[in-house]
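Troubleshooting log. The previous structure file for this entry was overwritten by mistake, so regenerating from the original sequence record. Sequence copied from the archived sheet and checked twice against the printout by T.R.
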Amino acid sequence: MKPTFTHFILVVFLAYIAHSMWTLYGLFFPKLCQPGNRCIKPYLAKNSELEMHIFTSLKKKQVGESDLDPIWRNNNFSFKDTIEKEFNVSIPVKTRKNGTCMSIAFVFPKGHDPLISQYTSHSEAILPPDRPVTHWRKKLTVTVMQDVVAFDVNSLPIEIYRIMRY
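Regenerated output below.
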């Protein structure tokens, strides 16, 4: 049987599917670091004295200290504990006029500045949905990865590598 153009296209398509599956596997099961390789080690392996601060802000990008309104501070944050708190938060006038308000949670080493520390990790969440409503989300969930695992820098998929700081 003589190879045809259709066979060639089929082989290229199957190779593409196999590569996509390998990339997805790498996203969920990254290669662990071997001795002698360049590794990304979690801060929790070195020190577990952390703080968590939660703020609201009207800005999503390039948030400065003057843009943050504190909601809650936990100066003895432990990633092993589950914390449930209720807060009464005043909705800013700009948000009431159909603006967006963000909640920003910072987890950082005790005694460091959350906006400057290289170990700071933060996450943003839009509090009201994108359509006009008169209420906030009832529940804000902050999740911290607590596994102490070192990853090989060269084995991380580019989708994860570009968002990590080490």
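The chain has two domains: 5-41+150-161, 43-126. Archived copy saved in two places this time.
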